[in-house]
Specification:
By secondary structure, the protein is α+β, with helices and mostly antiparallel strands. The longest helix has 55 residues. The strands form 5 sheets. It has an 8-stranded mixed beta barrel with strand order 20-21-23-24-25-26-27-28, surrounded by 6 helices. It folds into 4 domains: 158 residues, 2-Layer Sandwich (Beta-Lactamase), CATH 3.30.450; 108 residues, Beta-Lactamase; 161 residues, Alpha-Beta Plaits (2-Layer Sandwich); 247 residues, EAL domain (TIM Barrel, Alpha-Beta Barrel), CATH 3.20.20.450. The chain is 45% helix and 23% strand. The C terminus is likely disordered. Helix 16 runs parallel beside helix 17. Strand 16 and strand 17 form a beta hairpin.
């Protein structure tokens, strides 16, 4: 088939067709009648009205043809569009432009075509009225003229369609304008009503009062009822009514502006606050002095102001003071104590066991626990010298403005601990929480409000480390520990921000043959001077939940990135790299999801990453989340190792209740080999137990040949430690994997 012709005004023609909006509309009896009449008049089996879009030919009406559209490249009508008159193909088989057309070679087997262009009012040829026959035929001048007249009928129908579209648009626009006007009118009426503003007038000579309709509604009275000043004043109560009367008389006699705000009781018994302003008006036909003005219902404004104050100063859940109000009050009482020689004690409270209730019973129960605790604290802190606030989460604070000795604050702290410890009944359940209290005093411990808060925080932190549910007082000697914690957290934060927190990899070696079997990823921080920092240097950061979580996320991200690099370099594995997870990483309940997402994102097989958790993590505050995460990861194919086995809760039920694949014997037992009798016996028992359960055993901290020989002799599966290699950067891991016999060559020949 040859390329079809395109008219020079094609872009304008297509736009005109689109504006017409006829393509895709249902056929009508008028268009159908034309094609039937045309087919009958010319004795043709097929007659259609077609419109040509950019890529298709669409039939508005058709007779003797089943299809609704064709690709444009097959349309005979392309040639009719570039003609000034009727376009005729007497025999498609004899015309090289059409003899290969699929509608010639296949159904409807067209041999003859005659098409009359259909023009828009703008002169663009949009489509055709055409005839098709299955046999060749001639088409004379008279027939062409009659087909043109049929086409003019179709053009009239097209104009009628265009006019109908315009009329519908006009009606829609008129309807939209009418609706918009109605909306504006409703909005205006609503605005006047919502503003609750009305006009009033007071005749000082007669005492008569005139109100607008809105003022009647504001007072809850029937519109138009007669009023006098005594009835109006009576709505405001004795004191406010007397003040209103005095103000009206003052304005009437002196001309001073009228301004008044008071509460009233409406005719329906509703309490409202109104604000009125006015001015004196002298003159008129009767010469009376009048006061005229407007009155507005400001009840909502007052309520909104009060709500804003509550939002700014009170905790939305418990109703006690919030953190902002606490800081303001603390600064005020410390300033007052500084000028008057007083004493201020600050008690910081942190609830113990609340998180477990929140995680296991839901936030709705947790919220009710917080409300109950706040109520108990509020009952204890009723004096003018006590100020209770919720600082956020499960943290509360009590400011004790003392005149006596510190023993008063200590007694109060003890009473608080005892009150919180009592069971909290919610429905048929009892819930138990305790509180740890940190206590500091001005001026004994600090000279400023900020300093006092820091000292109380140190006291709380120290108390929680020592014994939860107790009272801790500030001592200068523990401040250094708190400072070390803050320094460690800051060190981690800066290392994360500058990409200096890295995993170092310590090899794990099979004791049977000395072959490399995997690695453990150990976190390191590279100082700005290039010196490496081990975890001991920033260990306090692991006690901070946010820092611990961010460390774990960064290590996992880098480990999976490194494994992806190895795969890209052609390494096919298998290899197992162990990553450690702290309790903080399980707090959100989404640890497994985040872990598996990292593997999927880097296309790492789950069996290549081993999750290492300690017994302390398994049985800690996040025990439920840990169990769910470990089970989900194990089901996905991630190996699970119980790290530092024997040093935590030391319960054999862990091996039964958790999907453990491997146990790692703590270095403290390995260190006792050759020096004491107990450690070798314990190690031997642990290995035998693990093997009976089908578990692999890895010994940590292997440093000497004596330890190595003993572990191999009793059947320990693998080991790691300085005897084989220190932990090294990723480049070391890559190099060792390329030369996997390196460690085997260093392994004693007599032990292979």
């Amino acid at each position: 088939m040859l390329p079809y012709p395109i008219a020079g005004d094609e872009e304008a023609r297509l736009h005109s067709l689109e504006v017409l909006g006829i393509v895709g509309t249902p056929t009508g009896p008028d268009f159908d009648a034309v094609v039937r009449l045309a087919a009958s008049f010319f004795s043709c089996p097929i007659s259609v009205i077609s419109f040509l879009e950019k890529d298709r030919q669409w039939f508005k009406a058709r007779h003797g043809l089943d299809i609704e559209e064709t690709p444009r490249r097959y349309a005979f009508c392309n040639y009719a569009l570039v003609e000034n008159g009727v376009f005729v193909i007497k025999d498609t088989h004899a015309d090289p432009r059409f003899h290969d057309n699929p509608f010639v070679q296949g159904p409807p087997h067209a041999r003859f075509y005659a098409g009359c262009p259909l023009r828009s009012d703008s002169g663009h040829q949009l489509g055709t009225l055409c005839l098709l026959d299955t046999k060749p035929r001639s088409f004379g001048v008279d027939e062409a003229r009659i087909l043109t007249e049929f086409g003019q009928v179709v053009e009239g129908l097209i104009r009628a369609h265009a006019n109908a579209v315009k009329l519908a648009l006009s009606e829609a626009n008129a309807r939209r304008q009418s609706e918009a006007l109605a909306r504006r009118n409703r909005l205006l009426a609503q605005t006047e009503h919502l503003a609750s503003i009305g006009g009033w007038e007071y005749d000082a000579a007669t005492g008569e009062v005139i109100w607008s309709d809105e003022v009647y509604r504001l007072h809850g009275l029937e519109v138009g009822s007669r009023l006098d000043i005594d009835e109006v004043v009576g709505r405001y109560g004795p004191e406010a009514g007397a003040a209103m009367r005095r103000q009206l008389e003052l304005t009437a006699t002196t001309g001073s502006p009228y301004s008044f705000e008071a509460d009233l009781v409406t005719g329906s018994g509703e309490r409202r606050t109104v604000r009125a302003i006015g001015e004196r008006l002298v003159g008129g036909d009767d010469g009376h002095v009048r006061v005229v003005g407007v009155v507005q219902d400001v009840t909502r404004e007052i309520e909104a102001t009060q709500a804003l104050w509550r939002a700014a100063h009170l905790d939305g859940l418990t109703g006690v003071a919030n953190r902002a109000a606490f800081k303001t009050h603390l600064e005020a009482v410390v300033d007052r104590a500084a000028s008057g020689g007083g004493r201020v004690s600050l008690l910081l409270l942190d609830l113990d066991g609340f998180k477990e209730i929140n995680d296991t019973c839901g936030h709705h129960v947790g919220d009710r626990v917080l409300i109950a605790v706040a109520e108990r604290l509020g009952q204890l802190c009723r004096g003018r010298d006590m100020f209770l606030a919720r600082l956020g989460g499960d943290e509360f604070a009590v400011i004790f403005d003392e005149n006596g000795q510190a023993s008063g604050a200590e007694r109060m702290a003890a009473r608080i601990v005892a009150a919180v410890r009592k069971p909290i009944r919610i429905g048929n359940d009892r819930h138990y929480v305790t509180t740890t209290v940190g206590l500091a005093a001005y001026p004994d411990d600090a000279a400023t409000a900020d300093g006092l808060l820091k000292c109380a925080d140190v006291a709380l932190y120290t108390a929680k480390r020592r014994e939860r549910g107790a009272v801790g007082t500030y001592a200068p000697e523990v401040a250094s520990l708190f400072d070390e914690r803050r320094l460690a957290i800051e060190t981690v934060r800066k290392a994360l921000a500058s990409n200096r927190l890295l995993p170092f990899y310590q090899p794990i070696v099979k004791l049977r043959n000395g072959q490399l079997t995997g690695y453990e990823a150990l976190v390191r921080i590279r100082g700005r001077d290039g010196v490496l920092m081990s975890p001991q240097a920033f260990s306090h950061a692991f006690a901070d939940q946010d820092s611990a979580r961010r460390i774990g996320e960064r290590v996992l991200s880098l480990v999976t990135t490194h494994l992806a690099e190895l795969r890209a370099e052609g390494f096919e594995g298998p290899i197992v790299i162990g990553v450690n997870a702290s309790a903080a990483e399980f707090a959100g309940g989404d640890f497994a999801e985040r872990f598996l997402h990292q593997l999927r994102e880097h296309d790492i097989p789950p069996s290549w990453i081993k999750l290492e958790v300690t017994e302390t993590v398994l049985m800690g505050e996040q025990a439920r989340n840990v169990r769910l995460a470990v089970e989900e990861l194990s089901d996905a194919g991630v190996p699970i190792a119980l790290d530092d086995f024997g040093t935590g809760y030391s319960s054999l039920t862990h091996l039964r209740d958790f999907p453990i694949d491997c146990i790692k014997i703590d270095r403290s037992f390995v260190a006792g080999i050759g020096r004491e009798a107990e450690s070798p016996a314990i190690i031997r028992a642990l290995i035998e137990l693990a093997h009976n359960l089908g578990l692999t055993v890895i010994a940590e901290g292997v440093e000497t040949d004596v330890q190595l020989e003993f572990l191999r002799a009793i059947g320990c599966d693998a080991a790691q430690g300085f005897r084989f290699s220190k932990a090294g950067p990723f480049d070391m891991l890559r190099s060792q994997l390329r030369k996997q016999d390196q460690l085997a060559l260093q392994y004693p020949a007599r032990l292979r």
